[in-house]
User: Fold these one by one.
Assistant:
Number 1:
Amino acid sequence: MSKTTGIGASVKRVEDYRFLTGRGRYTDDMNRPGQCHAYIVRSPHAHARILSIDTSATVAAPGVLTVLTGADMVADNIGSLPCGWLIHSRDGTPMKEPKHLPIAADKVRHVGDQVAVVIAETLQQAKDAAELLEIEYEELPAVVAPGSVETAGTAVHDEAPDNVCYDWVWGGKDKTDAAFAQAAHVTTLDLVNTRLVPNAMEPRAAVGEYDPGMDEYTLTTTSQNPQLIRLLLCGFTMGLPEHKVRVVAPDVGGGFGSKIYHYAEEVIVVYAARRLKRPVKWTAERSESFLSDAHGRDHLTHVELAMDASGIFLGMRVNTTANMGAYLSTFSSCIPTILYATLLSGQYKTPAIHAEVKAVFTNTVPVDAYRGAGRPEACYLIERIVDVAAREMGIDRAELRRRNFITPEMMPYDTPVGLQYDSGNFARNLEDALALIDYDGFPARRAESAARGKRRGIGFASYIEACGIAPSNVAGALGARAGLYDSAEVRFHPTGSVSVMVGVHSHGQGHETTFAQIVSERLGVPMDKIEIVHGDSAKTPFGMGTYGSRSLAVGGMAMMKAIDKVIAKSKKIAAHLLEASAEDIEQDGGVFRVAGTDKSVDIAAIAGAAYVPHNYPLDELEPGLDEQAFYDPKNFTFPNGTQICEVEVDPDTGVVKIVRFAAVDDFGRVINPMIVEGQVHGGLVQGIGQALLEHAIYDEDSGQLLTGSFMDYAMPRADDVPDFEVKTNEVLCTTNALGVKGCGEAGTIGGAACVMNAVCDALDIGHMDMPASPERVWRVIRDSRFGMAAE
Amino acid sequence: MYTFSYQKPSSVADAVAVLTGDDDAKAVAGGMTLIPTLKQRLAQPSALVDLGSVPGLTGIRRDGDALVIGAMTTHATVAADATVRSALPALAALAGGIGDPAVRHRGTCGGSVANADPAADYPAAVVGLGATVITDRREIAGDDFFTGLFETALEPGELITALRFPLPKRAGYAKFRNPASRYAVVGVMVAETAAGIRVAVTGAGPSVFRVAAMEQALNASFTAAALEGISVDAGDLNTDLHASAEYRAHLVTVMARRAVEAAR
C-alpha cells in the first residue's frame, strides 16, 4: 500500500488551492498606493548608434512624470548588469565582458534593447507619450548569423572587434587525437541546436518602491532567486547596502531559467522609484517577452566520434559555436562551457574527449540558461551521433548503447571531462524503457503503419545531467563569481506548528508540498502545521535560488541540516523533561523516547518547553526551537535515464505525430511521485517542442525577430503530445543524505534528441536539423523519392 | 490601445448609420482579429460599433434547400448545431477547426467573412459551397465577394447580416493548419452542388480561389484518384516562415484529395 503522507507519497500540492481558485499573488497583482507605470521604449533596430533623444514633447504629455534615458543612468552611476561567471580563453585571456547598461547609452545592440523609459500616472498615458519621443538613430550593419561573426565586418562591442567573447577548450586534446588515430571508424556530424524562446506563462514584471523616510527599497519581481537579485542589485547595478533593500519574488508563473537573471527592468523600476519617490510598476507584454527575456540554446556544432571495429567508443571531438546574443546575461558564459562540455561523456565510457567552444556576440537577444541549460545541448549531440554511428556500423541502436554504458560497478566514475558520477544503473533504465515501449513489437507496429501509408520510427535518448548546482569551491575554481550553497531555517512556534524559511524558490515546482513532506516525516508534524516560506529576502536566509534542478539536492539538504539541529536540541530538551541522558533519547518522527522504556515526549511538548522554559535546562540550553543551516554540496548530482519515442510520419504532408513515449528516470529518492511525474511530462513537452515546433528565427540581414509572437512561434499544445508512460528507478545519490538527484530538467535533457532520433529513423536518414516541421520533413521525403541526397 | 468611443447600437440600421457617418468607425463582431490589432496599437478607430446587442443577427435556420446563418453566430455554435451537422457536416467541421475553443466561442462567421483574412477558413466555405453573403442592403454571390487580400465587395458602412449556404449533395473540407496560429496554411473545400463541382482554396494565395482543373476532374469522377497529377501553380501562392509556395502547392492537391475523401 502506497504511503499517503511523508517522503514517497503523492501528496496533493498544497499551493494548488490558491492557484486553481485564482487567489495566487503574482507581481502584476501588486498595486501600491501612489503607484505609477513605466513603459519601456525599445529599439526597432538590431544595431544602431543613438544620435539623439528629444524628450520635450513626451515630458509635456498628459500624466507624464519623467522620461529616463541611458544618459541619466550614467550620470547617476548606475552600474552594468553583471555576468556571474568568468571564462578564460585557451590563450589564458579572460572573456570579453562589455558593459551592459540597463538603458542603452551609446548604441542599441538588438531589437528590443532598452532605449528610454516613460513613466506616467497610467500605462495608457505612458504609451501615448512614448509615441512622441523623437529618437534619431544611425543604423549599423547587424551581426546576426553566429557562424560568421568574425567576417561580419562590424562589431557588436568595440571590446570584441571580431565578435568573439571567448575561445575555450576542455578535455584532453592529445589523448583524443591518439584515440582517433586508433579508430576503425569515425562518424562525423554537423548539427544546429536551435534558438528557443522560453515563454513562461507569466510574463516578467517588476515593482520598485522607495521609502525616503527609512531610505529603504523594495523590489517585487518575477524571479527564481530573489536573494541573488538583491546581491546583484546592491553589489553591481544600484550600489546599495543589502540591509536597505528587500527583494520579493511572490508567486511566479514559470521560469524555465528565463527568470534567473538580473534584468534591466529591475534596475529601472528601483532607480525610477528613488527618483520619483513613488512606487513604479512595469509588466511585460508578450511581445516584449519575446524581445527581452533571455533566449535559450543556439549552438552550431561539429562532432566526431571514433570507434573500434565493434563500436566501442574511443574518443570524441566537439567544436561548438555558441551564440551569446548582444550582451552577457547573468549565467550565459557558463552554459556552453561548464554546463555543457563537462557532460560530453554522457552515459558512456568514452575514454578521451576534447571540446572547443567559441562564444560569439550577435545583434540578437541575449542567450542564457533555458531548462536544462547546456546539458540538453550536450545530450542532443551525443545521442544523435550515437544513432548515426549505429546506422553507419550496422549495429542495433540499443545494443550500441549497451556496449558503451558505464556500469554500476564502475561507480564512482571519473569522466574525461571533469565530473565524477556517483551512481546510476544506465543499462537497467534502457532495458526497462525497452520493455515499457515494447521494443520487440516495434517491427510489427512499423509494418502496420506502412500498410496505412505512414512511416514509423523509434528513437532513444539515454541522458545524464549534472544537477544540484554546485559545490562552491569547484564552481569557484571554474570561474563562478558566487557561492552555490543554499540555506534553510526551521522555526518551531510555541504551540508546535512550524515555519521553514528556505533560500530556494518555487515557481511551479511544488516546494510548499515536497519540502513540507520531508519536515513532516522527519519531525512528525502534520502537513497542515507546516508552512514553507520562500521568495522574500526579508524573511528567508540567504540562498541562491532555484535552477539546475538544485532545490531539493541543495536547498532540501540545507533544510535537512537544520532539521538535524532541531532534533539534536530536542533530544537534550527531551532528556531534561524525561530525566534521562541525551545519549539515551531515541527519536522517531515527532516522538522522543528514553531507549528501552515507555517514557516519551512529543515534539509539540518539546517546543512548548523551549518557548515557555519553566522546566528547562537554562544553564545548558538557550530557549527557543529555531535552527538555521547552510549547505554546500559535496558534488553535483547525476539524474539519468532513457527516453524512447515512436513517431509516425505522414509522407504526404511531412507531419510528424508522436504515437508512443516511454521514459525511465533515475532521480535518486523520490519525495512526491505525482509531482515528479508532472515535472517529467512538462520537460518532455518542452523537448518535443524544440524537436517539432519551436524555433526562434532572426532575419539574417535586418536582425528582426521573425517569430516574435505566438502567431509564428509554435508552442506545443496538449494535442501535440502523446500520453507518456513513465517509471522511476531509484538509485540513491551517494553524496547527499536525502539520496536525491533532481528531476526538474530531465525531460528536456533527452526529449529533443529522442524525438529527432525517431524522426531520422522513420525517414531512414542519418540526420536532419530541428525542428522537424512539416515542410522540412516533406522536403526530405520528396528529395529521397527523387533519389537525391536525403540530408 | 488608443482611445476610442464605444457604440452599442440596437438595430442594424443604427449600426449602419454610425458606420456610414464616420469613416474611422469600425464594426466589431467577435473581435478576434480587431481586438489584438487594437492592443498592439496597429489600428486607431474613432469608434467601435459593437454588434453584440443587435437583434436578429444570430441563429441558424433551414430555408428550403439552404441554411441561413446569422452573421453574429459563433463558430462554436455552428460547429455544434444539430441542423448544420446533419445538413452540412463539412461546414460544422470547418467551424469546429477554427483557432481554439476561446476563439470559437467569440469569433463569428460574419466577422470572419468581412475580415477576409487570406488564411481564414470561412472564405473557403463561402466560395466552395457557392454561398450568398446577405448584407443590410443586398445579396452578394460568394464568388464575387472576396476581391483580394483583406478586401471584399462590401461598401463603406455595409454590414453582413447573414450567410446563405445552398445545401450541396455532398461536401468535404480539409485543412492543413499552421502549427503556431492554427490558421489555414492550406484549406480546401470540395462540394458537389446542383450547379456542379466547386473546389475552393484558402490559406494558399492572397485570397480564396477556385481550381477549375480540379473541378473538371471531379465532375468527371468524384474520387480522390481523379485529382492525381493536378496541381496549382506555385507562382501565385504565398511563402512565409511556415510554408513555401512550392509546399503550399503540394498541400493544395493533398488537401483536395482529403476533402473529397471526407465529403458527405
Number 2:
Amino acid sequence: MEIAENILLTIATASTPLLIAALGELVVERSGVLNLGVEGMMVMGAVCGFVLTATTGSPWLGLIGAVFAAALFSLLFGFLTLSIATNQVASGLSLTLLGLGLSGLIGEKFVGIAGQKLPSLYIPGLSDIPLIGRLVFGQDPIFYISLALVVGVMWFLFRTRAGLTLRAIGDNHESAHALGIGVIRARYLAVLFGGACAGLAGAHLSLVYTPQWVENMTSGRGWIALALVVFASWRPWRVLAGAYLFGGVTIGQLHAQALGVGIPSQLLSALPYLATIAVLVIISRNRRLTLLNTPASLGRPFVPNR
Amino acid sequence: MQLALVRRQYPSRVLSVFTPFIAFGLTLLAGSIMFAAQGLDPLVTLYTYFVEPLIETWSLHELAIKAAPLILIGVGLSVCFLSNNWNIGAEGQFVVGAITGSALPVLWPDFANFATLPLMLLFGVLGGCAYACIPALLKTRFNTNEILTSLMLVYVAQLLLDWLVRGPWRNPEGFNFPETRIFNDAAILPELFSEYGRANWGIVFALVAAIGVWLMLRKTLKGFEVQVVGASPRAGRFAGFSSSRMVFFAFGLSGALAGLAGIAEVAGASGQLRPVISPGYGFTAIIVAFLGRLNPLGIVAAGLVLALTYLGGEAAQIALGLSDKVVRVFQGMLLFFVLATDTLIHYQVRVTGGTTAGDSRGDR
C-alpha cells in the first residue's frame, strides 16, 4: 500500500513539470506560433526560482520570480518572431541555447547549495487517509496549479470568445487580421503565457522535484513537452494523459534502475527519449488526422500588410 | 512606439554581406555590458577573449582544432536548413560517428597499418550518416516531425557512448576509468605541422567539405534542387524533384559530415573515447550555419569565429577568472543577433509612433 502510494506520488511529481510546460506551449501553438525555446525558458525558470529562494529564503518568492523571469525571457522570442518576423524554428533554438547558457552563468555560485522545498499541502485528517490521502490532499502546490491549468486552458480555448479568437488566429492569421483582430498582440500574450508556464514548470524542478540547482537540470524535458503537444494533437486533456504516461515511464525506469535489473542503466535512462520517438511516430503516421488537428498557420511568420 | 516591417522588393545584397558583422558587433557590445556587470574592465576582457588567442602560433593551431568540427557540421547543416530539413541532432550524429569510427582501434587494437585510419574515417562517416537517416526515415515514412526525433536521438547517442566507455569498451588496463584504450599510432590523425602546434588533418577535411558543398550548391543540379525545394516545396514538386529523396540527401550528407567530425575529433584531439567527447559542437554548429548565412564559404569564417569563442573563453578564464559559462552565453547571444539582423535583409524596419495597426489603417 505504502509503496504503491509512493510510486503514484513520484509519478505525479515527475509528470507535473511536463504537463505545465506542454500546456503553455499548447496555447502558444494554438495561436499559430511554434516556440522551440521551451527548454531554455524552463531552465531559466528553474535557475531563477532556485536563486531567488536561496537569497530571499522564501520558496514562494522563488516560485513567483521563476514565472516572471521565464515570461520576460520569452519576450525575446516574441520580439524576434512577432515584431521582426524571423524564422520561428531558428529563433526558438536561439532561445533554448541562450537560456541554457545564461542559466549556467546565473546559477554558477549556487551549485551544490542545499535548496528549500516548496511545502506540500497538509490537511489534518484528510491527508492521512490511507492510499489516497497524500495523493489527493498532500501534494505540492504546483501539482494543484497544474490540474487547474488543464481545466483553465480547456475552458479558455473552447468556451470563451478570446479562446475562439486565438484559435482563429492560429488557423488563419491573414483572415483574422482582415477581421480587425490584433494578431501580433494576441500572439505576444500567448507567448508570454507559454513562457510563464515553462517558468512554473522549471520552478517545479528546482523547488519540488529535486530542490537544488544543477546545470542543464531540465535534461530535455522542454523538448519532451514539445513532443507532448504533438502527441496530444493540440488538446489539453490529452496533454494531461500524455504527461502522466511519460511520468510513468520515467519513474518506471528509475525503479527498474534501483532494483538493479540486468539491463544497463543507460538503456533505461534512454527509455523516455525512445518512448517520445515511438509515440510521435504512432501519432503522426496518420497524415490526415495530423493535418486536421495542426493549427494551419503554425510556424508561418506573419507581417501585417497595411 | 511600434515597429513596422515593409518588405523590400529585392533582398538587400549589401546587408546580406554585412549583417553577420553587425550581429557580431552587437554581441560584443552586449558582452561588454555583461563583463562590466561582473566587475571586469570590458576592453581588457574583450582583448583577452578575442584578440590574445590570435597572436600566438600554438593557439592558432588550437583554433583550427576547434573550428574543424564546427565547420564540418555547419556545412552539412547548411544543406539541411536550405532545403527546409531541420536536423538539430548533429550532436548525436557526431557522437555516433565517433563511436563507429573508434570500433576499429578499440576492438582490434592489433590491426595497425596504413588502412586503419582511412577505414576509421569511413566507418565514422557511415555511422553518422546512418544515424541521421533515422529521423529522415521517420519523416518520409511516417510524417514524424524531424526536429523532435533528431533531438531525442542526441540523448540516446550520448547514453550509448556512456554505456560503451563504462561497460564493454572500457580500457582493460585503465584502472576502471571510464575510457577506452588509447588508440594505436596508426589510428591517430596526423598533425599538420607538429613542430608548431597540434592542428591536425581535421581542418583540411573541413575546408575540402566546405568547398565541395559550395561547388555542389552553386554548380550542380542537385544544388539547384536543394535551393528550389527549400524556397518552395510546391515548385520543387512541379519540377519533378522528389521531396523524400531530398530529405534523405540532406540528412544523410549532414550526418556523414557530423560523423566525420566526430571520428576526426576522437582520432585527433583525444586519441580515445571518453563519456563526453564534445563541448556541444553539434549545437554550436547551428549557430555557425546561420552566422555563415548558410553559405559554405561563409561557414568557414563563422566556424573560426565560434571556435574563437571557445578558445577565448578558456583564455579569459585563466587570465581574468572569467566564468567558463560565459562561452555559451556569447554563442546564444550571437545567434539571437544574427537572426534579428537577418530581418534587415528582407524588410525595411520603420518605427511608427503611438498608433496601433488598426488605427493607422483607419487613418488612410
